[in-house]
Design brief:
The protein has 14 helices and 18 strands. The chain is of the alpha+beta class. The longest helix is centred in the middle third of the chain and has 52 residues.
Length: 569
C-alpha cells in the first residue's frame, strides 16, 4: 500500500474512533443530471428506432392522407348530389305549373326565365319527337332543332324515371352541359319532356368550396370518363380524364399535358349512387411524399437539438415540474368527478395551457350534460306522442276493418299520412309547419290529374307540431273518403279546401262537389274518430258535417291558440 493510501485509511479510522460521521462514498447528483441522463436514454434509442421505422411511418402517413382524400371526395360527391337533387326539385315544381299544363309555352318561358335567373340553369321543353319547343337560353319562338342528347331522353321515358345525363356538347349552348330530364311518364305532361340543363363548368363552384391543399386536386368525371369540372384547370371540361385508375392500388401514371413527362399519382375515387359520376381526388406522388420526407429530416434534426437543449434545461425543468404536475393531477381528478375546475396560472406556459384546457373541458362537460339531458327529454316527449298516435291508429284501424288485409291496407296508408306530416315537422323545425304544405302533402297521393278539380286557398299560417300532426291525420282521412266515395271517386268531382282567420279563431272548410251523388249509409269509422276526438278533443274544434245533394261539406272552427305556437289572443 502506498503512503498516501495508508494515510487516508488511518484518517478515516481515526474519524470513526472520534465519533465523527464518515464522508459519503458517492457524491449526490442534482435532478437535472438524472433528467439529462433520462433524456439521453430515451432519445438515443428513439432516434435509432425512428430511422428504422421511416418506411412504416411513411406508409402510415400515406394511409392518413388517403383517408382524408376519401373523406373530401365523399363530401364533394354529396355536394354534387345536393346540387342535382335541387335541380330535380325545381324541375318538378315548374312541371306542376298551370302554364305548362295548359300548353302556354310562351308564358311558361317567361316564368322559367324569371325563376332560374342568376342560377346558371336553363329549361328545355321537347316534344315526343325530341324537337326543342322552347329553350330559355334563347328568345321564345326561335328554332332550335332536336336535342343534342336524345339517348338520355329516350332512356328516361323507357325506364319511367327522372334521369341525369352525362356531359355532352350542347348545340344551342355551344359548350359542355348536362341535363336533368323529366320524361312524360314522370312529369304527367303528355308528349312533353321537361329538361333542366346547366353548364358543366358551373360544377367547379362545388369543387372550389373544398379547401384542397398539399398538391391535391379534384375532378368530376361522368360515366364515359369525360371531365365535367376540375379544380386544376377549367379547360379540362369535356376532355377525357388523364389518369387510368387502378382500383386495387389507387396509384396510376399519367401526363397532365402534352409537353409534360409521365409521372405517378395517388388517386382516390368516390362514385355517386345518384348520378353514377365519379369524384377523383388526385395528387402527384412526389408532392404527396415531399412533406413526409421533410418531416423525417426534421425529426432527426429536432431529436438532436432536443437532446442538447433538454440536457441544459433538465435541471430547471425538474424544479418546475413537480408542483404544477401535482396540481394538474388534482384538477384532472376533479374533472373526472364532474366538479367545477378553475384555470390556474403557472410559470410554464404548457402547464398553464393544460390547466386552461382542463377548466374548459369541465365547463364543456357540464354544458354537454345539460344539453344531452334536454335532448333526451325532447326525444322522449316526441317519441311518446308518436307512439300514442300510432297506437290510436292501430286500434281504430283494427276496430273498423273486417279482414286482416283491410286492416293492413288502412293501417299502412294512415302511417304514410303520419310520416308525411312528420317529414314536414322535421323540415320546419322550430318554425312549425305551413298549413298549405300540410294540406298538399296529405292530398297528393289522391290528387286527380286535372288541376282544376282541386282548389286550395288560404292565407299563410304556420302550425305547431301537435296541431300539424292532428290536422294532417284529419285531412288524410277526408282525402281517403274523397277518393273512395266523394270528389275524387268520379271524373267530374271537385274539391275545394279553404281557410281564413276570424279574430282569434280559424275557419277551415272542406267542400266536395259530386254530380249525381250516391247516398250511402254513414257508419262511424276512424275518420270520424279523428274529427271528433282529436280535432274536437285535442284542438277544441267546433265541427259541423253536412251532406249536401252534391257532396260533403265539413267546417272546423279552431282556436288559433291551439294551432299557432306562441299565439296570444
Amino acid at each position: 500500500m502506498s503512503v498516501g493510501g495508508e494515510h487516508g485509511a488511518h484518517a478515516a479510522a481515526g474519524a470513526e474512533a472520534a465519533g465523527e460521521p464518515a464522508a459519503p462514498s458517492v457524491n449526490p447528483r442534482p435532478i437535472g443530471f438524472y433528467l439529462s441522463l433520462l433524456v439521453a436514454v430515451i432519445l438515443i434509442p428513439a432516434l435509432a428506432f425512428s430511422i428504422m421505422m421511416l418506411q412504416r411511418n411513411n406508409a402510415a402517413q400515406r394511409a392518413a392522407l388517403q383517408t382524408l382524400a376519401e373523406a373530401t371526395a365523399g363530401s364533394i360527391s354529396e355536394a354534387v348530389d345536393r346540387e342535382i337533387r335541387g335541380m330535380l326539385t325545381t324541375l318538378r315544381v315548374l312541371a306542376s305549373g298551370n302554364s305548362l299544363r295548359d300548353d302556354d309555352l310562351q308564358r311558361f318561358h317567361v316564368r322559367a326565365r324569371i325563376a332560374l335567373q342568376d342560377t346558371g340553369s336553363h329549361i328545355v321543353v321537347l316534344d315526343d319527337q325530341l324537337n326543342q319547343l322552347l329553350n330559355t337560353r334563347v328568345p321564345f319562338g326561335e328554332a332550335n332543332g332536336k336535342t343534342s342528347d336524345p339517348a338520355s331522353a329516350r332512356f328516361a321515358e323507357e325506364q319511367h324515371v327522372a334521369v341525369v345525363s352525362d356531359g355532352f356538347f350542347g348545340k344551342t349552348a355551344q359548350r359542355w352541359v348536362f341535363n336533368v330530364i323529366l320524361p312524360p311518364s314522370v312529369s304527367h305532361l303528355p308528349q312533353r319532356y321537361l329538361i333542366m340543363t346547366q353548364d358543366a363548368r358551373n360544377l367547379a363552384n362545388v369543387l372550389s368550396q373544398q379547401d384542397l391543399r398539399g398538391g391535391w386536386n379534384a375532378s368530376l368525371v361522368d360515366r364515359n370518363g369525360i371531365v365535367l369540372a376540375s379544380s386544376y384547370m377549367s379547360s379540362d371540361t369535356g376532355k377525357p380524364f388523364f389518369l387510368g385508375l387502378d382500383p386495387q392500388t389507387g396509384i396510376s401514371r399519367g401526363k397532365l399535358g402534352e409537353h409534360t413527362q409521365e409521372q405517378g399519382y395517388v388517386a382516390v375515387v368516390d362514385t355517386s349512387p345518384f348520378t353514377n359520376w365519379k369524384v377523383v381526388m388526385w395528387a402527384p406522388t412526389t408532392i404527396v411524399d415531399a412533406p413526409l420526407r421533410r418531416s423525417m429530416l426534421s425529426l432527426l434534426l429536432g431529436g438532436l437539438a432536443v437532446s442538447v437543449l433538454a440536457t441544459a434545461a433538465a435541471w430547471l425543468l425538474g424544479r418546475q415540474i413537480a408542483r404544477p404536475a401535482r396540481q394538474l393531477a388534482r384538477d384532472a381528478r376533479r374533472l373526472g368527478a364532474g366538479e367545477a375546475v378553475a384555470a390556474t396560472t403557472y410559470p410554464i406556459a404548457e402547464f398553464a395551457t393544460v390547466s386552461a384546457a382542463i377548466a374548459q373541458a369541465a365547463h364543456d362537460r357540464r354544458e354537454a350534460e345539460n344539453e344531452i339531458r334536454f335532448l333526451m327529454r325532447e326525444v322522449a316527449h316526441r317519441s311518446k306522442n308518436q307512439l300514442t298516435v300510432v297506437s290510436s291508429i292501430a286500434k281504430q284501424s283494427s276496430r273498423n276493418a273486417r279482414t286482416f288485409a283491410a286492416f293492413q291496407d288502412a293501417f299502412q296508408k294512415r302511417l304514410s299520412g303520419l310520416a308525411r306530416s312528420t317529414d314536414l315537422l322535421i323540415a320546419g323545425g322550430v318554425a312549425g309547419v305551413d298549413l298549405r304544405a300540410l294540406v298538399e302533402a296529405q292530398i297528393e297521393p289522391f290528387r286527380p290529374p286535372e288541376a282544376e278539380r282541386l282548389e286550395i286557398e288560404g292565407a299563410p299560417l304556420r302550425l305547431d307540431n301537435q296541431a300539424a300532426q292532428t290536422i294532417g291525420l284529419a285531412i288524410h282521412e277526408l282525402a281517403t273518403n274523397a277518393a273512395k266515395y266523394g270528389a275524387f271517386a268520379t271524373p267530374a268531382g271537385r274539391l275545394s279546401v279553404r281557410w281564413q282567420r276570424q279574430g282569434d279563431r280559424l275557419l277551415f272548410v272542406w267542400r266536395e262537389q259530386v254530380p249525381r251523388l250516391r247516398r250511402r249509409v254513414e257508419t262511424p269509422g276512424f275518420g270520424t274518430q279523428v274529427l271528433e276526438r282529436m280535432l274536437g278533443g285535442t284542438l277544441d274544434a267546433e265541427i259541423s258535417r253536412t251532406i249536401h245533394r252534391d257532396g260533403l261539406e265539413c267546417r272546423f272552427i279552431i282556436p288559433r291558440g291551439k294551432l299557432e305556437a306562441g299565439y296570444q289572443s
